[in-house]
Amino acid sequence: MDRKAMLLSMIRRVLQPAEVCAANGAVKRLGALDSRRTLVIAARSAGQSGTLEAVETNLEKAGAEVAVWSGPSMEPSLETVRTMAARAAEHQVDWLVAVGGGSIIDGAKLAWVLYETPEFDFGAEKPPAVEALRRKARFAAVATTAGSGSEASQAAVLTHPKTGKKVPLVSPHFVPDLAILDAGLTRSLPVDVTVSSGMDALSHAVEAYASRTATPLVRTLAATAIRSIIKDLPRAAQ
Q1: Domain count along the chain
Q2: pLDDT band for position 10 (50/70/90)?
Q3: Where is the secretion signal located (predicted)?
């Protein structure tokens, strides 16, 4: 860890996307995205639910040429990440838009790294630090589940190609430029996914509140999330 990274790790900071759109119909924000060429990285289920179509339609309204990578919702492997990055390079995109839950958004973040820095070595025993991104593209996340919080976090998880273990990568550069939280996109989820992702969100909120490094702002947000989940999750599961 270099001096700058060490200094930042000692300071209590709150990092969040530059823009968060949280409302029914928030996916329409993509209709005003400043993009010429966009790669949409989506869970296969997003195509089945109609979410992918809504994303593509709004991006086309913005005048963007849209390419799509679609795959299963599972922890990203290095091979999968490379195919995503190759698709981005093929179309020379200026925005990546991830559509799905935490695994898809994590995979898109890692593909973003390879697109920006093709020589980045994810296969190393200890992957190097993620340096500055956004030289080629910016990043938007459209969350379709409530659980991971990857649409607003500075973390991504990769399945290591040699050990098969999950390797977390943390970088402030991973925080998306735009996060879209459209409740309408979650209504087609199976009840078990709604419940499990809601409980995942609750565990994250409790963990954030109880953390010894939590700031007053973090505790305020975490407490609000805890109350909201306890109140609304049982109704959402009906």
Answers
A1: 2
A2: low
A3: none
